[in-house]
Each structure stands twice: as structure tokens, then as C-alpha cells.
Amino acid sequence: MDLSPIYRLAAKHFRQRRLNWIIREFSNCQDIVDLGGTVESWQSVRFPRTLLVNRAPERQLLPPGFAYLQADACSAGLRERFDLAFSSSTIEHLGTWGRQQIFAGELLRLGRRVYCQTPNRWFPVEPHYLSLFVHWLPARWFGHALHRYATLQGLAQKPSRADSARIRQRESIRLLSKRELRALFPGCQIRTERCLGLAKSFIVWR
């Protein structure tokens, strides 16, 4: 049974609920910097001015109110302050604790207010590969065989060994716990999103 449509439906539900909260909580913000974001993620909510920072080149015409900076979010060289420094499902893709520390420091430095959403390491479903428990194994164990045969992504896409290696390198996933988020964002609040009573993901905010 392919559970990916069910997961996509659940993800859409949580995303809409999250956007509703963003609109209420940050309605007075005018200038936004989105570290690691794309214009597609802003279809349902708009702020007057939004700067997107992403390493990937932007290949489409930006809507009014958007600007794009192709850069590493950990070292974009921005000096101005923004009403809101925003990040959604990006910090877990930075690969190492050191880069996550730098990224969190940039959010805190750039934003008068901060929003950072990320999946919970201790939720049993790994949201990128769609699998149970494999993200709790040592990273060196997550090779081609586990990717190909123990994740819904692998079963659906049937990646070769080379494809699997490229996907793992591109994703560079290091999921975070609530304790680690507290260490990365001192003085911030943490909002917990729950699924079936379990902490699915966290939103750090101030």
C-alpha cells in the first residue's frame, strides 16, 4: 500500500494550519527574509516585501513584492535587519551541527522576530524519505539498501546505487530534537505540532 498520498494530505493539513497561525502572529511584519525558501511556499500568504535567499538559481519571474538572492543562507552577507527572519524545513538540510549553529545565528541576527520550522527527530516517520525509524539509526547505516527497500521514496522511485548516493548528498539531512533547538535559539519560544498525540515538528519563534 502506497501511503505517500495519505502523507501528502496530512502535510497539506499541517501546512495550512501553520500558515493560518503565521498570518495571525506576524501580521504586523513588513520586511521578511526567507532563508532557504522558494516563491512557491508563499502562494497562500504574502507580506509586503520578501527577500528569498537560496543557493539554487531562481528560474521564474517573481511576483510583486519579492526579491531573490542566490547565496548560501549561512553566509549571504546581509547587513540589514528585517521585521521577520523566516525559515521553513531548511535547517535540517544543512548536514552538520556546525552549519546549523551558523544558520540559527543568522536568523537571530537578521530578524527582529524569528520563525524556524523543522521536523522533530523523535517522530517515528522520517518525512523526507517517508520511512519508519530509519532516521534513528547511525548515519553510516543508511546506505543504498535501506534507502531502496525500507523507504516509500525508494520503493516508488527505485533509485540505483548512484541515484541513492546523489539523493542523500543533496538532502544532507540532520534532524533536530527539541533540546537542540533550545540550544540553537536561546530566548525563543517553541511551538509543538502534534500528530496522533506525538510531536511531529517544532516551530521556533520570537
Order of helices and strands: HEEEEHEEEHHHHEE
Strand order of the largest sheet: 3-2-1-4-5-9-8
Q: Largest sheet, if any? A: 7 strands, mixed
Alpha-beta content class: alpha/beta
What attributes does this structure have?
globular, 2 domains, 206 residues, alpha/beta, seven-stranded mixed β-sheet, 9 strands, 33% helix, Rossmann fold, two-stranded antiparallel ribbon
Tell me what you see in this structure.
The longest helix is centred in the N-terminal third of the chain and has 22 residues, at 4-25. The strands form two sheets. A seven-stranded mixed beta sheet has the order 3-2-1-4-5-9-8. It has a two-stranded antiparallel ribbon with strand order 6-7. By secondary structure, the chain is of the alpha/beta class. Strand 6 (125-126) and strand 7 (131-132) form a beta hairpin. It is 33% helix and 25% strand.
SSE layout and pairings?
Blueprint: H1 4-25, E1 31-35, E2 49-54, E3 66-70, E4 82-88, H2 97-110, E5 111-119, E6 125-126, E7 131-132, H3 144-150, H4 152-157, H5 161-171, H6 178-184, E8 189-195, E9 198-205
Parallel strand pairs: 1-2, 1-4, 2-3, 4-5
Antiparallel strand pairs: 5-9, 6-7, 8-9
In short:
By secondary structure, the chain is an alpha/beta fold. 33% of the residues lie in helices and 25% in strands.
